[in-house]
Design goal:
By secondary structure, the protein is an alpha+beta fold. It is 28% helix and 27% strand. Strands 8-9-10-12-11-13 form a six-stranded antiparallel sheet. Strands 1-2-3-6 form a four-stranded antiparallel sheet, with helices on one face. Helix 7 packs antiparallel against helix 8. Bound molecules: P1-7-methylguanosine-P3-adenosine-5',5'-triphosphate. P1-7-methylguanosine-P3-adenosine-5',5'-triphosphate (GTA) binds next to strand 3 and helix 4.
Length: 335
């Protein structure tokens, strides 16, 4: 009860920001918000596919733009991501024993290939749905060339900040987790301190069936820190808590030690509420490349050396070709 009470308390430094955000969340910029997830399953069979936004043979994933037609004939956009999941070692004997069919494709000397048809319970396709999806979601998932921009602190203040204040994705899903209105049963660890606390939950991208693609996300309780750019020495206790407690919680729950985890922040993130990614070191998660990922341990050292490190240096950002922020950099003659 005391942990719950602490989580309800508020970091004095963030009170004003929360009030602004609540007003903001009531009227989300991308026009989509819900306090809690709808209970009904998504009508997948009724989805009419408009186009393939992206597909990846390597990741065995396809990103679809589809539409669902409502009772009065209106169409609503959705993004549906279908993704084959990694093998679970412990299910292999069952897969071999219970396969529905094994069809020879070719044989040559000692070499042969087959089509193996597993039973339905062993052929899961991870399905992620964004519904209703905004134009911005469709753009986000569309395959695009990316361009690197070197964003100085001046650029951040004059170009990026006004842009993210005017049109970033709704943070309602984050507030739902922090307020236990969604995913409450999935919480792996919580430090309820309103200033230096956070909630650790499995990321959206992880089905938790196997550890190869382990992916969790730590969401900070305070609401006044948008991204890496806002961090100063003041946030060191918060960041140290995330690293230490996050690693301990993952080791305890999943048996993966800190030395096997990649713990990092994105710059630019998609969602401007500070969060930290925890992924299995052997897993090349989308967004773990050098141009986007900043290791939390390095961020801590940089801030300990210089409290205003992230307000002094230029940061590289990878922006998609059709991203309005990239256009803003072009207009400002910064590209
Ligand atoms: N637990 O409701 C949620 C939720 N949402 C809406 C987002 N996340 C959530 N987690 C929970 N519940 O890791 C997670 C996201 C992401 C993090 C936000 O929050 O899965 P970020 O702000 O740094 O933004 O992190 P990021 O990484 O761009 O977000 P996102 O949405 O994952 O996009 C990543 C890019 O990866 C996209 O452009 C997409 O095209 C690509 N991608 C590749 N594979 C996938 C996949 N399987 N699913 C989704 N996106 C993928």
């Amino acid at each position: 009860a005391s942990a719950a009470a602490a989580a309800m308390a508020e970091c004095p430094r963030t009170k004003r920001k929360r009030e602004e955000d609540e007003a903001d969340a009531a009227e989300p910029r991308d026009g989509v918000a819900s306090a809690a997830p709808a209970a009904a399953a998504f009508p997948l069979a009724e989805l009419s596919v408009r186009r393939v936004l992206r597909e990846s043979a390597r990741d065995k994933a396809i990103f679809l733009h589809g539409q669902v037609t409502g009772p009065s004939g209106e169409s609503t956009d959705a993004v549906v991501i279908l993704e084959k999941t990694p093998f679970q070692e412990e299910k292999i004997p069952e897969l071999l024993r219970k396969h529905a069919r094994l069809e020879l494709q070719m044989r040559n000397d000692i070499y042969s290939t087959y089509h193996l048809y597993p039973p339905p319970e062993l052929s899961e396709i991870k399905t992620t749905v964004v519904y209703p999806a905004t134009e911005k979601h469709l753009r986000k998932y569309l395959r695009q060339e990316v361009h690197l921009v070197r964003e100085t602190w001046e650029d951040y203040k004059n170009i990026t900040l006004p842009f993210i204040q005017s049109q970033s994705f709704s943070l309602q899903w984050v507030y739902n987790i922090l307020e236990k209105k969604a995913e409450a049963d999935r919480i792996i660890h919580e430090n309820p301190d309103p200033c230096d606390g956070f909630v650790l939950v499995p990321d959206f991208k992880w089905n938790q069936s196997q550890l190869d693609d382990l992916y969790l996300i730590a969401l900070v309780h305070r609401r006044d820190v948008k991204s890496l750019r806002d961090l100063t020495g003041e946030h060191l206790p918060l960041l140290r808590n995330i690293l230490r407690e996050g690693q301990e919680a993952v080791a305890e729950r999943f048996g993966v030690p800190g030395s096997r985890l990649r713990v990092y922040l994105h710059y630019q993130p998609s969602y401007y509420h500070l969060h930290v990614h925890f992924t299995a070191l052997g897993y090349e998660a989308a967004g773990s490349a050098a141009e986007r990922a900043h290791l939390l341990a390095d961020v801590l050292d940089n801030l300990a050396l210089d409290s205003r490190y992230y307000q002094r240096r230029a940061l590289t950002c990878a922006l998609r070709a059709d991203e309005p922020l990239l256009a803003k950099f072009r207009e400002a003659g910064r590209l």
